[in-house]
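Sequence design from tokenized structure. All designs in this work follow the same two-part layout: the structure record, then the generated sequence. An example of the structure record is given first.
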């Protein structure tokens, strides 16, 4: 018994020092990966408190450590909680990809409280049933009709479940951010008893109103797609409010003969410092690559970049073939390995497209 306890204590020493090989050896000798110290830490919890111990956390998960282990109290002190509280984006993504729970949204709330924007985006991107740019109306209803662009603002909208174990009926909430640089949301609205006023199918109006019936003072929010002809985005948003996730399309590889492209090293792929660029994930149709011609089916039917919504979409993602944004935005996305803004496929190369 004493020998096993000494092995468990030695495991913590190896974790603190980052000794991956020592951890593997002790695991083979029968050391308990779920043994807790006096503070209620497991070896994995300890590894999730420092960015330099990312490799240790990865090794412990590979060896079978429980990503949802927690002390008797507080029960929310899971490895994900510790990583989110310290802003360890890479560790957060590792835990989420290996089944970490986000019950009660405690890790997400910690990331918001400490203003770790990248961690907030990472958790929300993993759990949301909808995410994208929309326009929020804030003026009188009559003026909304007369001058919608002047009385609306562009906002980032996500719909997330309130628990990783979905209850019945499902519980979701609508979260609105003024920009992607913000860790704290401007609006959080429960959707379990919402009054959703959808536009009629043939009506020219493309906005939706959500009324929060849970609050003492009824709050309402009026949203519209961020791009013209955005009815498909609005439909996905309304479905998500009801607990129906937006569809995720598999990558589509087009056999397109591309013009001779310069080698990958010729492109400036230096990462831009700052908050992560979360691009719209809601496109009306799956685009088809078009080289030297107009692409009328890409996510921005007007030919605008899906990311900055300002510059023309003149970059093609290889190998998926989507003309999804401007060269500047796509180059940054590729450097940060976020994947195509349309289908999320890996981007091996970005090629400039010249439209005629």
């Amino acid at each position: 018994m004493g020998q096993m306890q000494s092995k468990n204590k030695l495991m913590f020493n190896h974790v603190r020092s980052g000794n991956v090989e020592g951890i593997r050896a002790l695991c083979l000798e029968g050391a308990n990966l779920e043994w807790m110290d006096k503070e209620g830490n497991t070896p994995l919890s300890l590894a999730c408190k420092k960015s330099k111990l990312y490799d240790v956390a990865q090794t412990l998960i590979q060896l079978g450590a429980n990503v949802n282990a927690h002390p008797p109290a507080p029960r929310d002190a899971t490895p994900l909680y510790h990583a989110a509280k310290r802003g360890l984006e890479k560790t957060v993504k590792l835990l989420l990809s290996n089944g970490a729970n986000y019950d009660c949204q405690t890790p997400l709330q910690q990331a918001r409280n400490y203003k770790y924007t990248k961690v907030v985006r990472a958790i929300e991107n993993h759990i949301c049933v909808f995410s994208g740019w929309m326009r929020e109306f804030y003026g009188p209803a009559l003026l909304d009709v007369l001058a919608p662009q002047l009385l609306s603002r562009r906002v980032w909208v996500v719909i997330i479940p309130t628990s990783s174990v979905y209850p019945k009926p499902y519980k979701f909430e609508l979260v609105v951010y003024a920009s992607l640089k913000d860790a704290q949301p401007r609006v959080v609205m429960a959707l379990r008893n919402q009054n959703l006023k959808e536009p009629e199918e043939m009506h020219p109006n493309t906005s939706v109103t959500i009324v929060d019936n849970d609050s003492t003072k009824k709050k309402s929010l009026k949203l519209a797609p961020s791009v013209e002809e955005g009815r498909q985005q609005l439909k996905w948003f309304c479905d998500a409010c009801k607990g129906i996730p937006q569809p995720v399309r598999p990558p589509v590889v087009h056999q397109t003969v591309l013009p001779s492209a310069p080698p990958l090293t010729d492109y400036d792929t230096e990462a831009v410092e700052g908050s992560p660029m979360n691009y719209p994930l809601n496109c009306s149709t799956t685009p088809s690559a078009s080289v030297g011609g107009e692409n009328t089916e890409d996510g921005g039917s007007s030919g605008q970049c899906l990311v900055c919504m300002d510059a023309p979409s003149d970059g093609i993602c290889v190998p998926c073939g989507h003309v999804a944004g401007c060269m500047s935005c796509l180059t940054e996305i590729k450097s940060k390995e976020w994947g195509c803004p349309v289908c999320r496929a890996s981007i091996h190369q970005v090629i400039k497209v010249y439209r005629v």
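The chain has three domains: 2-126, 128-241, 250-356. We note this feature because it recurs in several other targets discussed in the main text.
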